[in-house]
Please model this.
Amino acid sequence: MEGVVLITGVMAAGKSTVAQALAERLPRAAHVRGDVFRRMVVSGRAEYVPGSPAGGEAEAQLRLRHRLSAATADTYAAAGFTAVVQDVVLGPDLAAYVELVRTRPLYVVVLAPPPETVAAREKGRTKTGYGAWTVEELDAGLRARTPRIGLWLDTSELTVAETVEAIVAGRERARGCELLWHDSE
Model:
């Protein structure tokens, strides 16, 4: 896999772990963690939470985060690295993110374990992703509003290694996002 790989899903779906394992498997890869760009905002950060006004500061900062991670991925890819990006990119934001990344091939992988699996994983984590959001809310947004592009994986019964194998084996389906790209030109 060369180019850019976007691994998305709800919080606690396994994005960080899977992205790191995939990057480690590839011969020359960088792991681009989308949340790093949110945490770089030291003062004036506006968290994107349920009820955030459309077009408000929280949405503007989310869009900035996506632009920064896409540009970083493109820069790594231009230097000969496969950029493995992991972030929560759901709903119409997924199609917008595909437009932001200029590098091709672009692979989109959506980790979509059921909400009960996510809730169990969240309980076992040292960090907490859910505060203002509930697992069910975010999962409903994923399944109802996110375009069905790329490779969608229910990872509830898969180990990290098996998930990486499924991504590599399904890479042509993950490139399905390029159809969206060509249709929009």
Remarks:
- The chain is about 50% helix and 15% strand.
